[in-house]
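Researcher: Last one for today. Full complex below.
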Amino acid sequence: MHWLTFLQLFSIDEEQLLQQQQLFQHQLQLQQQQALPDAIRNFILYFHHCLKESNVYDLHGCYENTFNKLTEKFYKNTPWPDPQTVVSPLVENDQPFVSLYTEMYYRHLYAKLQPTLEDRFASYENYCLWFNYVFDPNSPTDLELPTNWAWDIIDEFIYQFNSFSLYRSRTVRKSHNDEEISLFRERPEIWNTYSVLNVLYSFIQKSQIKEQLQAIKDGRDPDEVAGEDGSRPLYKTLGYFSLIGLLRVHTLLGDFTLALNTMENIDLNKKTKYSRVAGAQFTIYYYVGFCYMMLRRYSDAIKAFSHILLFISRTKSFHNRSAQYDSVTKRSDQMYALLAICVALCPTRLDDSIHTTLREKNGEQLARMQRGGEESLPVFEELFTFACPKFMMLGPPDYENPAANIDPLQHHLKVFMMDVKNTMLAPTLRSYLKLYTTLNIDKLATFVEISPEELRSALVVFKQKSRQVRWTEGSLLDGDVVNVSDLDIILDGDKIDISEAKIVRKFGDWFLRNSAKYYAVQDTIANKNSVAEEGKENKEHGKRRERREKNAEKNSK
Amino acid sequence: MDHSSKLIDGYQIPIQRPPEIEEILSTLSRFNPETGPVLQDYVGTQCSTETYDIMANLALLKLYQFNPDLMREETVLNILAKSLTVFPEPDFTLCLYLLPPNLLSTYNSTASDSSIVPAAPVVTSDDSLTNSVHRLTYLNSLLEMAAFSTFWSTLASPVDEEYAEIVADVSGFDDAIRAGITRAITLSMRSIKTETALSWLNFKTKEALEKWVAEKMPGWTVEGDAISLKSEAEDALAPSAVSSSSSGKLRFEQLSRVIKRVYENQLIHH
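Model: Here's the assembly. Have a good evening.
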């Protein structure tokens, strides 16, 4: 009897406590909700409504426009309303929506504020929740997301994974925050590489995207191989973007071959609905170009970088207005830096407008690299460090020996520089060889100030480096060995025979570009004569540009 | 990628990849620690049968990244030694990228006063794997710099016998390297002095060199103090046309701006 009473008493107590807590929570929620601006409340309700109705068009509007506008207005430097206490009650705890909202909440927080370790954990857990929901075999979801949004989810997922891993390594290496280190050790499952790869591979498998892409390549109907899941737009989209995600993760881990291999079924030259997602395009070409560079396939790397940089420069006025403007600028600066490295290692004639911009951005560095010698090495290091992806360790750091955790960037830089050092002599050789059609080894050796035998080796290397595997068709790793240099040599005993392929200038292009420049000069002169009218003209010019940009935006939709 | 062969300067080295390895590489089993021993044995097979499969070896190094406990020193070194044999392909470098960073962090090739070829790295670590990786890295840079004589003398170094020891597992190592050097010669030369060839290919006698030329260098003969390409096959240096295909051609649309301008100017002036 005694026991029971006690137990009952106890349980009542606990119930009361619970009730009190709930009441308190409720009041807190009410307070927070009351503080919620109407615009935000209405937005969240409408956003939720669109998702429930699977109204992809309006969802796109909410996601791309309204969310960014409201961020500007209300949450420029503060987080959006808390997903659990504020947003969840508003939408009757509709889990899929709350998860998606949470994803955006953390993405905004990562972009504008400094995430705490708690945020990092919670964001990961939210990803798990959402992925589990999407993967749940009992309820294949009919949910449909705008393509951009699906890309942003995969992109952000990998970004946060990368960011967490770097943060963890840094903290352990400095070993100054014992509390956080013990949290890392307690929870090795958070942002675990296996789990991240697992998510990406699962999307790929569930969507049968590889088989679908292969079918498209063979001219068959992809729906034949897609299966029930693979024909759902959400899986298909996430599957496709997961391939790009893998390209990125494998590159971050230093496996450049496997990275390119995961892209084997994607035809870069083919336009699909995914190639309209600009962010995905930048990512593909940056990582593909980078991998090629690490595989010493410089001409393929140059092609990849040139292609996307040209695309960026042509659509610049459009990006100017987008929220991603800063990241696009940073990415393209990085790619110009990588392009400079590749051109220094493999002299190549670039597209004229790319060449002009490259000279503006990295002209001096390029010149120093092209001169070669010991002095060029720091420039290579500087550009590589600036432009490479944020390499990460695959596993958890060595907690016992903090000093043993070497930054993988240093490792990759070191290996890369070994390759560079072997070609240090090439620019000097090149400059002399260009002057002759035949030359004796002894004579050149005195110019370069090395022994004739060393020169013979250097010339062999020079010749070897002029041969590269270059892609022609098939998957990205395929290719044929071709001569990529305009300067060809062959040794006949001690005699060097040199042949130089002259490049035909594109007179037509040159004529057109300079015509345009000439017109601009003409206009400037003409305007000087009518200073009074200048103001008016400028205004009109501005208006016209605005109109044009609006049109461009409309068309791109 | 065509998995059946690997391209080296246009030479095909056939890969006889067993089906069970193909299965591992093309599925997610490549991340399964249980496949470690299978891939490890496969490295052993490559060493003893003079075959080579970079994709499988990279997959194993990746598996070691995931499971450092699985890592077998001997296998790592075999993979690296094997990848030397396909120089100047970047395979050795690609393997290095997948190794734990602390193996290479202390590597420093010492600049030499008298030569552009660096001197051998000083062996300092008390970790044998680190030291061996450093030795192999040095051998690789000698091959990459085409410092072939130094390569052979380092390999046979009486001071540091470890060099020969590291590559001992790879059967046919010397001949594979010779084949690589032969590729370098035939790519960049029409003739080479016998003396140079002897030291580059590491043959003690002229007879051995003659035998090698007869077997491995079709179209080449030993004549007097040089080996050279027979004259009929001599036009190897055809100037390659680098000119872009569309040079000089313009599409009509590209002229639109010019035409528009002319038209506008006429409006202004009349």
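The domain at 194-422 of chain A is CATH 1.25.40 (Serine Threonine Protein Phosphatase 5, Tetratricopeptide repeat). Chain A touches chain B through 79 residues (CB under 8 Å).
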